[in-house]
Design brief:
Helix content: 40-55%
Order of helices and strands: EHEHEHEHEHHHHHHH
Shape: elongated
Number of strands: 5
Structural class: alpha/beta
CATH class of the largest domain: Alpha Beta
Largest sheet: 5 strands, parallel
Number of helices: 11
CATH architecture of the largest domain: 3-Layer(aba) Sandwich
Strand content: 5-15%
Distance between the termini: 46 Å
CATH superfamily of the largest domain: Response regulator
CATH topology of the largest domain: Rossmann fold
């Protein structure tokens, strides 16, 4: 029976032998419960976004095509999942570029498969309350990446963009800022032109993924 303090863990991994061994290893821990798994990009995204309550998700960086498959899955999960989840990336090799992209996608930790024994500690660490200095650094990294993406905008345009990020309509923004809808419409057009986007949704997505776009 699941105890109150159990940590619910999901795994996205395409190596069935490693998946089975990892699942067995983790389930020997008294406070960890493996609640499900997936083994490719499509099922991984669906599992990560639509599964029930889950605390930590372990994601293999390289699933089908490259070491960036896991990064793609993480981005989709971050955008599609309603409740927060911690993500730990698994990899067979150390690649600084992949590590940076994993953290930019929302990873809490990055663990070599050869050091899988560290996973119970890493899982518990990810669930600890309080401020983790590494997570603070990563949040600042993501903030700076967004600031770089918004550098072409004026301060007034940035303010409007932040409202667009929150999903506000043009009329809501106009009312909030005490401006006419025509003024807001004109400023949004300028924002889209400067960010090279055809819609507010595309602009928000482009800024969110600025790190990935600039490092392809």
């Amino acid at each position: 029976m699941r105890g109150k303090s159990m940590i619910r863990v999901g795994i996205i991994e395409d190596d069935e032998l490693f998946l089975g061994a990892l699942k067995g290893f983790l389930e020997r821990e008294p406070d960890i419960e493996v609640v499900g798994q997936a083994n490719d990009i499509q099922t991984g995204v669906a599992f990560g976004t639509k599964s029930g309550p889950m605390d930590v998700l372990l994601i293999d960086c390289c699933l089908e095509h490259s070491a960036y498959d896991g990064v793609h899955i993480a981005r989709c999960i971050q955008e599609g999942r309603k409740d927060p989840i911690k993500m730990i990336f698994l990899t067979s090799i150390e690649d600084q570029e992949v590590i940076l992209q994993a953290y930019a996608a929302g990873a809490s930790q990055y663990v070599l498969k050869s050091r899988f024994q560290e996973l119970p500690f890493m899982i518990r660490k990810a669930m600890q309350n309080g401020t983790d200095p590494m997570n603070t650094l990563l949040e600042e990294y993501r903030r700076l990446a967004q600031e770089q993406a918004l550098s072409p905008l004026t301060s007034a345009e940035r303010e409007i963009f932040h409202h667009l990020q929150e999903g506000r309509s043009r009329s809501d923004i106009a009312e909030h800022l005490g401006k006419s809808e025509e003024t807001i419409k004109s400023q949004i057009k300028a924002i889209l032109r400067k960010l090279g986007s055809s819609s507010a949704k595309e602009a928000v997505e482009k800024v969110r993924n600025h790190y990935f776009i600039s490092h392809k």
